[in-house]
Amino acid sequence: MAITAKDFASAVGAICELLPYAKRPSVDAQLLLWTTLPIQVQQELSSHHLAYASAQLLLDPARPQELAIPVALLRYLYRLENGLPNFNWGLRPDLAQRMAGTGFQPLPSSQLEFDAQGHGGHDGARHEPGGVLAQLAALPELHPVRWGQGS
User: Which residues of 90-117 are buried (b: 16+ CB within 10 A; e: fewer)?
Assistant: First the structure.
């Protein structure tokens, strides 16, 4: 069952109350957070996903302090690109296995580590259709500039 704005706001608010130095977002800020989430995310997440991600965030000894709570929360559910959740890549392929486990389950520190755990089979962003490298490959070829010569 898909999450609602109230589910998301409740999870973010509760985490902010439990973490030291985290400020609970206002009602307007929570509404903005919800409306900026892609529809795909709103529809594919359940309250079980939020509970799992919340527990992981609270248990993580290396929790990212520089990220907003909602972004940090979604890192445990979605595949990562440069340490941030990439919604276009979808949910983590090992998410069901992680959610079935107990205790804190650290995220792989790199795609190489993820592949070594038997979940990969390719080299990450290079083969993702919505990844940075795929977008760069679609750019027109740039001709080299030779200094001192006219165009």
Answer: ebbebbeeebeeeeebebbeebeebeee
Residue with tokens 């490959």: 137
Q: How many CB atoms lie within 10 A of CB 28?
A: 8
Of 19-23, 50-54, 78-82, 116-120, which range is least confident? 116-120
Q: Which residue has the tokens 């409306």?
A: 35
Handedness of CA 121, 126, 127, 132 (dihedral sign): positive
Strands 84-85 and 80-81: antiparallel
- The span from the CA of 40 to the CA of 28, in Å, is 22
Rg over alpha carbons for the chain, rounded to the nearest Å, is 19
Distance CA 80, CA 88 (A): 10
Express each pLDDT in 23-38 by its tens digit: 888 999 999 999 999 9
Name which of 48, 33, 30 is nearest 91 in CA terms: 48
Output b/e per residue, 5-24; b: 16+ Cβ within 10 A. Answer: eebbbbbbbebeeeeeebee
State pLDDT tens for residues 81-102: 888 999 999 999 999 999 998 8
